[in-house]
Design goal:
The complex is a heterodimer. Chain A is mainly α. Chain A has a domain at 101-239: MetI-like fold. Chain A contains twelve helices and no strands. Chain A has helices at residues 15-31, 40-48, 50-66, 78-90, 94-125, 127-142, 149-156, 160-184, 188-196, 201-238, 248-258, 261-293. Chain B is globular and about 55 Å long. By secondary structure, chain B is of the alpha/beta class. Chain B has two domains: 1-74 and 152-253, 3-Layer(aba) Sandwich (Rossmann fold), CATH 3.40.50; 83-148, no CATH class. Chain B is built from eight helices and nine strands. In chain B, the strands form two sheets. Chain B has a six-stranded mixed beta sheet, sandwiched between helices. A three-stranded antiparallel beta sheet of chain B has the order 2-1-4, covered by helices on one side. In chain B, α2 (89-99) runs parallel beside α4 (133-146) and α3 (104-117) packs across α4. The chains are: A mainly alpha, B alpha/beta.
C-alpha cells in the first residue's frame, strides 16, 4: 500500500484549517512547560563537591598523625603516601600499573558486556529460560568472584586468561541481571505499541526492548563495571607473576611484601581514585542523559 | 494523499470470542462490513467487548470462531499515545517508517511531512515528556499514518484529554481522515464524539457483546460544516444515549 506523498501538504492558507492550526499552536505553547534554564553554578558544584569529602578525610588523617597515636609504619602520613606514589612514578611503575589495570578491566568489561547482553535478553523475554537459569545467575552474582581465582589459576596458570576469567565471572551476572530487570520494568503499552508497529525478532530487541530496558541495563552495566574492577584487583593481588606485567593489584601486593605501608595505602587510593573517575566521567553523565531524555530527572 | 485500499476494507463474519471454554462469551456472533475510506464508530458501555474486538482486528488476539477479512494489518492507536520515551517526536515517526520498510534516506523528510500533517512541524526534536497530552496524541496519529496502512483502529484515543484539546483533535482527525482517505474504526464511550466524527455509528450490547443498532449519518460534506449539523449531532447523540441507557438498565438487578 504505497502512500503518495505530495498531495498531503497542508493546503496553503486554507481559511478554516489555518485557524485551527493557529489555535492549536497557541494551545501547544500554553501546555508546554516553560524551559528551565540550566544552572551553571549548580553544575560546577556537583562536579567539585566530592572534593569536600576528600579534604575532610585528609584533615582528619593529618590530625591523627599530629596526635602521634600510632607509629608511621602503621599509619603513614598523607605526605609519606604522596612520596611513596612519587617514587612509583619515578620508577615508571605507577602510570604503567594504572593504565594496565584499567585496560584489563575495560577489556574484561567489554567481553562481559558482549556475553551478558544476549543472556539478559533471553532470560528477560523467556519465562521458561528464566526459571531454569535465573537462580544460577543470581547465585553467581552473590558469589564473590575472587573465589574463582584458585580454580582459574589451576586451569589457566598465571596468565591473562586467569584474570579475564575472574573479571568475567564477576561482571556477567550483574549486567545480565540488570538487563533482565530493565526488561521487566518495560510498560506493557510500549511492548504493545512495538507489536502494532510491526517490530519482530531482532528488530524488536534492537529498537524496542533494549532502548526501553536501558535504564535498568545501565544500572547493571554500572554494577558490572564495579564488579569487574574489584574482581580484577582481587585477581591481580592473588595471581602475581612478572609474566602478567604491572598492575595496581601487583603494586599493592608489592607494598605488602616490602612492609611499605605508605605504598599499600597509596595503591588503595589509586584503586579508589580510578573507580570514582570512571563513575564520574562515564557512568554519571550517561545516567544523567538517560534520565534527562526520558523526563525522569528531578 | 491517496491510500490504495482493497474493496471491503474490513469484513468480520460471525466473530465469537470466549477467553476460556467455560468462560463468558465476550463477543457473540459479531459481523461487520466497513467500506474502504469509511469512518465507523463503535459505541457501548463497559463490558461490551469493544477493546477485544479491536484487538482481534489488530491481530493481537484471535477469535474463537469466525472470519476476519482485512486488506492488510491495520494501524492501532491507544488511549495513551504510547510514544517511545527515548526517542524524539520525529524519531518516533521514523521508527514506524523504518519498521514499515521505508529506506533510511527518505525517513527524515517523510517524518517531517507527517508531523506537518498533524501541525507539529516544529516538534521534530522534542521528546515525548516535553509535549502536552494533545501533542503526544497527534504524534501518535502521525506515527500511525507512517505505517501506511489502509485501516486505522482507534481505541478511545481522546478519552484522557481535556475538553478543549479533545475538541481540536476532533477537527484535526476529521481533516486528516479527509486528506488521507484512510478507513477509520473508532471506539469510544463518548456518544457525541462518535456522531460528530463518523459516517456510521454502531451501538454494542454488553455481556455478550453484539451490535444492536446502527445509525447512518453519511458524509455529505457541505452539510457537515452547516450550522444545522451541530443541532443534528445533539439530537442523534441524545437518541443513541437513550438506546445505550436502555441497554445498561437491562443489566440492573
Amino acid at each position: 500500500m504505497p502512500v503518495e506523498t505530495g498531495t498531503q501538504e497542508v493546503p496553503a492558507g486554507g481559511g478554516k484549517d489555518l485557524d485551527l492550526k493557529r489555535l492549536e499552536s497557541g494551545l501547544d505553547a500554553l501546555e508546554t512547560p516553560a524551559h528551565v534554564k540550566r544552572n551553571i553554578k549548580g553544575y560546577f558544584f556537583s562536579l567539585l563537591s566530592p572534593l569536600i569529602a576528600i579534604a575532610a578525610v585528609l584533615v582528619i588523617w593529618q590530625i591523627v598523625i599530629w596526635l602521634q597515636w600510632q607509629p608511621d609504619y602503621i599509619i603513614p602520613s598523607p605526605r609519606d603516601v604522596w612520596d611513596a606514589l612519587g617514587r612509583q612514578v619515578e620508577q615508571q611503575i605507577l602510570w604503567a600499573s594504572t593504565f594496565n589495570s584499567i585496560r584489563r578491566a575495560a577489556q574484561g568489561f567489554i567481553i562481559a558486556l558482549i556475553v551478558a547482553t544476549p543472556i539478559g535478553v533471553a532470560l528477560g523475554l523467556n519465562k521458561t529460560l528464566r526459571s531454569i537459569f535465573g537462580p544460577l545467575l543470581t547465585g553467581l552474582q552473590q558469589l564473590p568472584s575472587v573465589a574463582w581465582v584458585p580454580a582459574a589459576i589451576i586451569w589457566f596458570g598465571l596468565s591473562d586468561a586467569t584474570i579475564y576469567t575472574v573479571v568475567l565471572l564477576g561482571a556477567v551476572p550483574s549486567i545480565a541481571i540488570g538487563l533482565m530487570s530493565g526488561i521487566d520494568q518495560i510498560p506493557s503499552i510500549i511492548l504493545r505499541a512495538g507489536q502494532v508497529l510491526g517490530a519482530t525478532g531482532f528488530n524488536r530487541v534492537r529498537q524496542i526492548i533494549l532502548p526501553a530496558a536501558w535504564p535498568g541495563y545501565l544500572a547493571g552495566l554500572e554494577q558490572g563495571w564495579a564488579f569487574s574492577w574489584r574482581s580484577l584487583m582481587a585477581a591481580e593481588l592473588i595471581a602475581v607473576s612478572p609474566a602478567l606485567g604491572p598492575g595496581l593489584g601487583q603494586m599493592l601486593d608489592n607494598g605488602r611484601s616490602l612492609g611499605d605501608m605508605a605504598l599499600v595505602l597509596g595503591s588503595i587510593f589509586m584503586i579508589l581514585f580510578v573507580g570514582v573517575l570512571i563513575e564520574r566521567l562515564i557512568f554519571a553523565p550517561l545516567r544523567k542523559r538517560t534520565l534527562q531524555n526520558r523526563g525522569l530527572l528531578r | 494523499m491517496t491510500i490504495a485500499v482493497a474493496p471491503g476494507a474490513v469484513e468480520l463474519h460471525h466473530i465469537v470470542k470466549q477467553f476460556s471454554a467455560d468462560g463468558p462469551i465476550v463477543l457473540d456472533d459479531v459481523s461487520l462490513s466497513v467500506k474502504p475510506g469509511e469512518f465507523v464508530s463503535l459505541v457501548g458501555a463497559s463490558g461490551c467487548g469493544k477493546s477485544t474486538l479491536l484487538n482481534i482486528l489488530a491481530g493481537l488476539e484471535s477469535p474463537t470462531s469466525g472470519v476476519v477479512n482485512l486488506a492488510g494489518p491495520p494501524a492501532l492507536m491507544f488511549q495513551e499515545a504510547a510514544l517511545m520515551p527515548w526517542l524524539t517526536a520525529g524519531k518516533n515517526v521514523e521508527l514506524a517508517l523504518g519498521l514499515g520498510g521505508v529506506p533510511r534516506v527518505q525517513r527524515k523528510a517523510r517524518a517531517q511531512e507527517l508531523l506537518e500533517l498533524v501541525h507539529l512541524e516544529n516538534s521534530y526534536d522534542q521528546r515525548p515528556h516535553e509535549l502536552s497530552g494533545g501533542m503526544r496524541q497527534r504524534v501518535a496519529i502521525a506515527r500511525a499514518l507512517a505505517q501506511s496502512r489502509s485501516v486505522l483502529l482507534m481505541d478511545e484515543p481522546f478519552a484522557a484529554l481535556d475538553a478543549i484539546t479533545r475538541d481540536f483533535l476532533h477537527e484535526e482527525l476529521s481533516r486528516i481522515w479527509k486528506e488521507t482517505g484512510i478507513t477509520i474504526i473508532f471506539v469510544t464511550h463518548n456518544v457525541r464524539e462518535a456522531v460528530r466524527l463518523s459516517e456510521r455509528v454502531l451501538l454494542m450490547s454488553s455481556r455478550p457483546g453484539r451490535f444492536i443498532k446502527e445509525w447512518e449519518i453519511g458524509s455529505n460534506e457541505p452539510w457537515r460544516s452547516d450550522s444545522t449539523f451541530s443541532s443534528y449531532v445533539s439530537e442523534l447523540a441524545g437518541e443513541i444515549t437513550d438506546n445505550l441507557r436502555r441497554e445498561i438498565v437491562r443489566h440492573a438487578s
